[in-house]
Design a protein that fits this description.
Blueprint lengths: L2 H8 L8 H10 L3 H9 L4 E6 L4 E5 L2 H6 L9 H6 L3 H16 L4 E8 L5 E12 L5 E10 L1 H21 L10 H18 L3 E8 L2 H8 L1 H17 L6 E6 L2 E7 L3 H18 L14 E8 L7 H17 L4 E4 L2 E5 L2
Parallel strand pairs: 9-10
Antiparallel strand pairs: 1-2, 1-5, 3-4, 4-5, 6-8, 6-9, 7-8, 10-11
Helix pairs in contact: 1-3, 9-10, 10-11
Pfam families: GGDEF (PF00990), PAS_3 (PF08447)
EC number: 2.7.7.65
Catalytic activity: 2 GTP = 3',3'-c-di-GMP + 2 diphosphate
């Protein structure tokens, strides 16, 4: 391809939108070598594809520096597609073809293969050249290395995910926090309401925890909370949710769980805490940490809202504590005292 073709294709009127730029092009039209110098001294990689043959008429030598493939190896659009990450290929190729057929200028980001087998993020900025009748004649554009930008975007996205996760996590125990509990309960309530399914809730309170803090100190008290949170997590099934409700209280959301199954989960958690034998000198129950449980199961309806259900289960928790602690109380069920 000669210098005039390069200058006309790449730095022609298709890239110079305003009058001043068009005038500058006219003044330099007799110096095609200047265009090549300008094009090949930039980090952007210019290229041109003939629409009818789908062959590269030109690609800048910078492509070899970036990807390792010589310009002479870029013969057709197939070379371009095959040197694209498999996960990006179909979507990017389909998008670019459809936009080009419609005569619409466009941009596409994708990962391009290097000769060493790695991938580099590229952005293709494409201008569709049409003849005087409006038919697509050629595609011209620039490739830009946006790898650093993508790395920055990924780091920002990762940090945002971490911050979001932290905003829904209890900082002490690592369980969900009250905010996350509210979101999960609302979501599971709406799902159960739509499906006519049972939803169960288990509220847990560590027995005599004020006495524990008074005797061992708040630092040890925090360790106890973390330990109990971890133990409760061991008692969960797939799909269950655990959160710290506040202070020494925890709560379990058990989706699609009937009353009997909810009682079994509560009993398993109570046994796990007892088996851990966390020392509690001020507790009347074997001088170890125990917990009281309130359990409720409901098929949601419009007659009660999630807050009302939580209050009912919380009342059962207090029934368990009034019945001597270290036991389970359930709505419409007698308290089950530990033995």
């Amino acid at each position: 391809m000669n210098d005039n073709a390069v200058s006309d294709a790449v730095l022609g009127a298709q890239f110079l939108r305003h009058d001043e730029a068009l005038s500058a092009r006219s003044d330099m039209a007799h110096e095609p070598a200047v265009y090549r110098t300008l094009l090949e001294s930039t980090r952007a990689i210019p290229w041109k594809i003939d629409w009818h043959t789908m062959q590269f008429e030109y690609i800048g030598p910078q492509i070899e520096t970036l990807l390792g493939f010589a310009p002479s190896s870029w013969k057709t659009v197939q070379d371009w597609a095959e040197r694209m990450h498999p996960d990006d290929r179909a979507q990017v190729v389909d998008f670019c073809v459809s936009q080009s057929k419609a005569g619409v200028d466009h941009e596409a980001d994708y990962r391009a293969l290097t000769k060493s087998g790695d991938y580099v993020w590229l952005r293709d900025v494409v201008h569709v050249v049409r003849d005087e009748h409006g038919a697509v004649q050629a595609l011209v554009g620039f490739m830009f290395d946006i790898s650093e930008r993508k790395r920055t975007e990924e780091q920002v996205a990762r940090l945002q995910r971490e911050l979001e996760e932290l905003s829904f996590k209890d900082g002490l125990t690592g369980t969900g926090n009250r905010r996350m509990f509210d979101i999960v309960l609302k979501r599971e309530w709406e799902t159960a309401l739509a499906d006519g399914a049972a939803l169960s809730l288990v509220m847990i309170d560590i027995d005599f925890f004020k006495s524990y803090n008074d005797y061992y100190g708040h630092v040890q008290g925090d360790e106890c909370l973390k330990r109990v949170g971890g133990i409760l997590g061991e008692g969960l099934r797939r799909g269950d949710f655990l959160a710290r409700f506040g202070g020494e209280e925890f709560v379990l959301v058990l989706p699609n769980t009937p009353a009997d199954a909810a009682m079994r989960v509560a009993e398993r958690c109570r046994n796990l805490i007892a088996e851990a034998r966390i020392a509690h000198e001020r507790s009347p129950y074997r001088q170890v940490v125990t917990a009281s449980f309130g359990v409720g199961t409901i098929v949601p309806s419009h007659d009660i809202d999630p807050t009302g259900f939580v209050n009912l289960v919380d009342a059962q928790l207090y029934n368990a504590k009034d019945n001597g602690r270290d036991c389970i109380a359930a709505i419409d069920r007698p308290a089950l005292r530990s033995r």
